[in-house]
Amino acid sequence: MSEPRKLEVLRAIVEDYVHFREPVGSKALVDRHRLGVSSATIRNDMAALEDDGLITAPHTSAGRVPTDKGYRVFVDHLAAVRPLSPAEKHAIQSLLDGADDLDDVLERTVRLLSQLTNQVAVVQYPQLGRARVRHVEAVLMAPHQILLVLIADTGTVEQRVHTVSEEVDRDRLAALREKLLAGLVGAPVVKLGEALGRVVGSLPPADQSLAAELGRGLSLLAESSREDRMVMAGTAYLARSNSDFLQSISPVLEALEEQVVLLRLLSEMANDSRGVAVTIGRENAYDGLAETSVVATGYGGDDGPKLGILGPTRMDYPASMAAVRAVARYLSKILAGS
Question: How far apart are CA 325 and CA 20, in angstroms?
């Protein structure tokens, strides 16, 4: 059996099984695909694929289904990720263009990606390791309570009401806010403490205590913004794919609830030459995801956060990879221009 025909037969089996949701037999392959050989030859080819561990017979079925190894070979031999259709590209643009802030952008992103792929979609929030301060706001809520807002150039917005020991009026707070703003804009968020120290040290002694309290509040915002967070949508699609899981979807749902599992998995995935990463079945280190595949890529620049989809191993890999890559590229453009 030649290697090109072996891959062609495997491709046909994967495509038919994904589309028809049933084991694939040699007669179906001959009827549906122009493979240029007889049904007997296809049976021999399928036997060779089974010997290689790329396909298997579920129960007593005459047909065959791909194994995790078979899906891996199929994905690795995709010549390229096919582009999205004009309608799909328009859907991405029209939905994401109307977003108001980062939270809205990411919520729209996971909903869109889930709808495009019929899978669970996840996206990590941008981390502030290399982010810089874009804006600082301080709003008087009560004489001792101030709403502090920290906005990074990644689009991340953190806010909290901070209590100070001395009573503050609006004019004094506005003046302090202007001095903080002048000294902090452009500063790396991870070095916010150093920048705050310089600003506080440059102020008149009468303002230093209050400015230091505001600085502590801003530092807390910077700390909280470094926590790994993610947004998710489309878990209902798992229920519709219940037949794809031999055991139960419960371990998958538990993994989705325990977000640290997905965050770790996404962080460890490395893009291939096509700009996407794919882990299949037991390639996922967490046992609860042993019957799922994850397709992911980064957005917002090198070493940026990840977005992707999770679903049963029986998924349309070319379409899923195309959707993930396209949405990530568009999201990157939006955040770069925000």
Answer: 26
Give the H/E segment covering residue 284: none
Written as one letter, the residue type at 137 is E
Backbone φ and ψ for 180, nearest 5 degrees, come out as -65, -45
Among 22, 62, 59, 65, CA closest to 39 = 62
Tokens of 124: 């990590």
pLDDT at 325: 92
Q: Rg of the Cα trace of the chain?
A: 26
Closest CA to 161 of 138, 179, 187, 184: 138
User: CA 157 → CA 19, 87, 152, 160, 241, distances in Å?
Assistant: 42, 32, 7, 10, 36
Enumerate residue ranges in the chain where pLDDT < 50: 1
For the stretch 92-132, pLDDT in tens is: 888 777 777 788 889 999 999 999 999 999 999 887 666 78
Q: Is the dihedral of CA 37, 41, 47, 48 positive or negative?
A: negative
Residue among 124, 81, 107 nearest 304 (CA): 124
As a whole number of angstroms, the distance between CA 201 and CA 328 comes to 43
Q: Across the strands, what pairs with 296?
A: 277, 308
